[in-house]
From TrEMBL:
It is found in: Periplasm. Residues 420-440 are annotated as: Disordered. Residues 27-133 form the TolB N-terminal domain. This is Tol-Pal system protein TolB. The Tol-Pal system is composed of five core proteins: the inner membrane proteins TolA, TolQ and TolR, the periplasmic protein TolB and the outer membrane protein Pal. They form a network linking the inner and outer membranes and the peptidoglycan layer.
Length: 440
């Protein structure tokens, strides 16, 4: 409820600098070509515009820096190297001083706190061309939403320099885990993309699995064992109200995902020894069977336009990845490498499929083109599984479990080049992440 209210209260205004004309400079990172040397940038503490905002100015600058550094594309110039600071948001930039410390990008900001109201302004400069990069922006909201404003500043900086949309002002739903492997308790939780602001959505009375955000981020599908059998539930994130979606007697339903239109759910249903893929119209409750094979068909995921489904099937003897029309029909196999493939997820950009691969005793998170070409394994460990895409299709989050009785499940992220592997800190163990959209 808290974060939904925040969305309603936050306002963002395009704000043109009074002394510098906005223009597009040459500063650019091309992600497709890979980035070996991170771009150096400086982000001095945001200028306090009243006595209450000094600490907030420091916190905002630190958050923006952490977001950018976490991409692996940027390197912060430490404050100890600064020749000149920024004490007046409207003062002319001393480009020579920032060039001397090799800061190629400069982020400046100002912050004002009045009671529980917060206003944040920022500008981005291309130091070596001596020009502002894009218009300044101003955000207004409550002090409780300061992290979101910092993430929005970082998203704008990232977008202007890379040409890609950002992903910092987003949420992730996941399974929070406590206890040993033999008596592990699981409950649904939602957090900021960086592990902050964790809120629990369910209790730990029954096992929950595989939460999946809707495209709009307002609902979550998941599987629960509270009835004794796996059943699909849908949960409203704002009200935390939930209801069962599928409960045919004598069956087990699991692995649900929303269609991009938010009105249809694709899932697996097991009856006897057979598992096939079905869809369910949320409004009418009408289900439709898409596959009819003696093999196990599971883990379906829609393409961004909703016209196709990628899924996992062992119809060839071992789990492999297949693509078929969203209305069913003969599927096409797309994975042919050595090992077992599973949990495919279509990129929001539509160009790649992320998957889990088990081969030679190791688990990997990988990506491939839709025709199965250009397979790349991004990680390797005792157990990596369950990839989910950032909203911009450039970063993947997944579960890593360590070996042994005391083994723990934690969340990691990695970019599509595989060169920026990072843990995502959560208060307890975590698994089954599902990345939501950018917030409004």
């Amino acid at each position: 409820m808290i974060w939904r209210i925040l969305v309603c209260m936050m306002a963002v205004l395009a704000w043109t600098a009074p002394t510098v004309q906005a223009q597009q400079g040459p500063l650019r990172i091309v992600i497709d070509e890979g980035v070996i040397e991170p771009l150096p940038f400086a982000v001095p503490a945001f200028v306090p515009e009243n006595g209450e905002s000094a600490q907030m100015g420091q916190q905002l600058a630190q958050l923006v820096a952490a977001d950018l550094i976490g991409t692996g594309l940027f390197r912060e110039v430490p404050a100890s190297a600064y020749i000149s600071g920024v004490s007046d948001f409207n003062a002319a930039i001393q480009y020579a001083d920032w060039k001397a410390v090799n800061a190629q990008a400069l982020v400046t900001g100002a912050v004002a706190v009045s009671g529980d109201q917060l206003t944040v302004k920022f500008r981005l400069y291309d130091v070596f061309s001596g020009a502002e990069l894009g218009n300044g922006l101003q955000f207004a909201g409550t002090t409780a939403g300061w992290r979101r404003m910092g993430h929005k500043v970082a998203d704008a900086v990232y977008s202007r320099i890379t040409g890609e949309s950002g992903y910092f002002d987003s949420r992730v739903v996941f399974v929070s885990e406590t206890g040993g492997k033999a008596d592990r308790q699981k409950r649904l939780a939602v957090m900021d993309y960086d592990g902050a602001n964790v809120q629990y959505l369910t209790g730990s009375e029954s096992i929950v699995l595989a939460p999946r955000f809707s495209k709009s981020g307002d609902r979550v599908l998941y599987t629960s064992y509270e009835t004794g059998f796996p059943r699909i539930f849908v949960l409203d994130v704002g009200s935390v109200q939930r209801r069962v979606l599928e409960s045919q007697e004598g069956t087990m339903s699991f692995a649900p995902r929303f269609h991009p239109n938010g009105q249809t759910v694709v899932y697996s249903l097991s009856q006897g020894a057979n598992t096939d893929i079905y869809t369910l119209d949320i409004n009418s409750g009408q289900s439709t069977r898409l596959t009819s094979a003696p093999s196990i068909e599971t883990a379906p995921s829609y393409s961004p336009d909703g016209s196709q489904i990628v899924f996992e099937s062992d119809r060839s003897g071992a789990p492999q990845l297949y693509v078929m029309s969203a209305s069913g029909g003969e599927p096409t196999r797309i994975s042919f490498g050595e090992g077992r493939y599973g949990t495919p997820v279509w990129s929001p950009r539509g160009d790649l499929v992320a998957f889990t691969k088990q081969s030679k005793g190791r688990f990997h998170i990988g990506v491939m083109r839709l025709d199965g070409s250009e397979e790349r394994l991004l990680t390797a460990s005792f157990l990596d599984e369950g990839p989910t895409w950032a909203p911009n299709g450039r970063v993947i989050m997944f579960t890593r479990e360590t070996q042994g009785e005391s083994g723990r499940s934690t969340l990691y992220s990695v970019d599509i080049t595989g060169r920026n592997l990072r843990p995502v800190r959560t208060p307890e163990g975590g698994s089954d992440p599902s990345w939501g959209p950018l917030q409004n």
